[in-house]
From TrEMBL:
Coiled coil: none annotated. This is Molecular chaperone Hsp33. One of its GO terms (molecular function) is unfolded protein binding. One of its GO terms (cellular component) is cytoplasm. Keywords: Chaperone, Cytoplasm, Disulfide bond, Redox-active center, Zinc. It comes from Acidithiobacillus marinus. InterPro entries: Heat_shock_Hsp33, Heat_shock_Hsp33_C, Heat_shock_Hsp33_N. GO terms for biological process: protein refolding.
Amino acid sequence: MTDFSQSFYWETLPLRGARCRLDAIYARVLRDFQGQAEVAQLLGEVLVGLALLATTQKNYERLIIQAQSKGPLKLLVAEMTAAGGMRAYGSWEEGVSVDLSQLPDALLAITIDMGMDRDRYQGLVELRDSLTLSLNAYFAESVQSPAYFRLVADPSLQQAGGYFLQRLPGVLAEEDWELATQFIAVGSDQSLLKAHPQQFLPEIFPDSAVRLHEPQALSFACSCSREKVERMLISLGSAEAEDTLRSEGAIVVTCEYCQEVYRFDEADVALLFAPEHALH
Ligand SMILES: [Zn+2]
């Protein structure tokens, strides 16, 4: 197993956490990426944040972390399914430096989609100077159970991973919470990624046993399909489809997440808008 998340908890303390490693997913997301290094970095961080956040959720169908602003970073989004399929996508202004602390009207939204006919929960926080601070703020404001994230992403090494800790309801001394977060905060990114949790987690509170759950395998997965693109074209209407056919010769739709290309020529479009097709 290359990519995974793994949660853990302390037996006698109201404290839990998780770690993850997403090198293969990150490499796949960056495969056709041609933007600024800061955006490549953010794509890794948002994937890591999502994988860690997911370890705190049960019974969801899809989790989404989305950052948007009216500045150079238009959209940054990562999605994860219950089966551990992850994808991410960014949209930004070419050639403009992307600095989270300088973005106007910047928001971070976390969506928990429970599936068909069930609830959809969305939490919103202001985007802070980093995704780490934004996720910490989300837990403090929306979940009311403080968390501490450390997100590591290195686009040149194609490495992504991280740790997070969450303080659960119960009695945990302030200095113990600070001690635990220090263990995650210190050291280089490389040393954090290489650390063995079985070794360093028990060192934090030698008097309380740490239990590690089985890791969950994670992988790159995109939910796009020709059928979904067909439905989108039908909803835009035949006039628009015929306009594009006239000017471009074919309708070509490229998935923003996985770069899969869906091509529709004149015969495909005719079939799409034929009365018998519309019945389905
Ligand atoms: Zn796709």
